[in-house]
Amino acid sequence: MSGVGKGIAASSIGAIFKARGFTVTMIKIDPYINVDAGTMNPTEHGEVFVLEDGDETDQDMGNYERFLNISLTRTNYMTTGRVYQEVIRKERNLEYKGKNVEVVPDIPFEIIRRIELASDKANSDITIIEIGGTIGEYQNMLFLEAARMMKSRAHDDVAFVMVSYLPIPSKIGEMKTKPTQYASRTLNSAGIQTDLIIARASVPLDQKRKDKIAMFCNIKTEGVISAPDVESIYDVPINFERDNLSSVLGAVLKLNLKNKPLNFGPWKSFVNKSKSVKKEVNIAVVGKYFSSGDFILSDVYISVLEALKYSAYKLNHKIKLHYIGSQTFEKDAKKPTRQLGGLKELNQYDGILVPGGFGSNGVEGIISVIQYAREHKIPYFGLCYGMQLLVIEYARHVLKLKDANTAEINKDSKNLVIDIMPDQKKKVAEGNYGGTMRLGAYEAVITRGTVAYEAYKNDAVEERHRHRYEVNPDYIQKLTDAGLVFSGKSPDGILMEIAELPKSKHPFFLGTQFHPEFLARPLAPHPLFTAFIKASIKKGS
Ligand code: GLN
Question: Residue 357: CB within 6 Å of ligand 1?
Answer without folding.
Answer: yes
